[in-house]
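Figure S7 source data.
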Amino acid sequence: MTKNCSLAETGELLKAAKKLVIVSHVSPDGDTLGSSLALMHALRMLGKEVIMNVDDDISTVYSFLPGIAEYRRFAPDESVDADLLVIVDASSADRAGNALEVVKSPAVLNIDHHKTNTQFADYLYLDSDAAATAEIIYSLLLEMGIKLTRDIATCIYEGIYTDTGSFKYSNTTSNTLKTAADLLKYGVNPSLISDNMELKSRSQVEMLRKVLETLTFLKDGKIAYIEIPLELYDHNVETDAFISYPRYVEGVEIALLFKQVEENLTRVSFRSKEIDVAKIALSFGGGGHKKAAGCSIYAPLKEAEKVILEAVGELFV
Ligand code: 5GP
Ligand code: MN
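Tokens for the predicted manganese (II) ion complex:
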């Protein structure tokens, strides 16, 4: 049974622990990394021992984040003791990678903003109105009476920047912008963040050229998708932003990106104008938000495309 916590209860749980493991979700993005790092800096200021974990590679795009070098990946046979295991911005247990097996902790706390949260932890702080988990972390640290530093503020700003698509998606609220405005008072440099996030490697742009050739429209242009087959896939090349190309084509209601990351594993990203794609992702074991969601299909690219496009196509009959 999961106990849904208030912000104050969440703060008390964190304060009561001496040794914590903070886990960011697999396929890490700026929100899970920024939120987790902000929490790490704050808890270390309180004298806590904090171990950082993510069961995946971290894109070099995030190298500028203060504290990013603290992350380590657990070996599957490792055993790590902690008073509290904190899982950040993950809506289901599989998103935590191997941490739930490796870490021996009396309790698991999940801090999240996905409405598809599966209530897998012992304690949950969930606010699905928050644009980013980083927005929650900001309120949490204030609730805990922690004085923000520039490093903490930078990490929180990064999380909000990522999940709002630099303050432009429909999840951006007046609270989001108020939070960002407050963060600037702690010395955040917005152009440092956007310069790092917008910077593209040559290999990324070269891959984009090939990926755009795969752009396909279905259902009178209401569905658009692009694909990255295994031959093209390179885990060192950042492709998160590619989906914005089909997404913003006139008339497109649902955009998809299919990325074959292994012979029998295809990652799917969904974006929509209005239709609830979290529901579709959830029905395939994934999750996310109404207008931005994802899932993994344990099949080769073409097979994954067939099942997903069939399900998405049914929405337009
Ligand atoms: P993206 O398409 O950028 O990978 O993910 C879009 C949103 O869906 C993010 O909020 C992300 O956390 C969520 N998401 C993506 N893939 C999965 C998945 O496999 N499982 C779950 N639960 N959420 C996912
Ligand atoms: Mn998030």
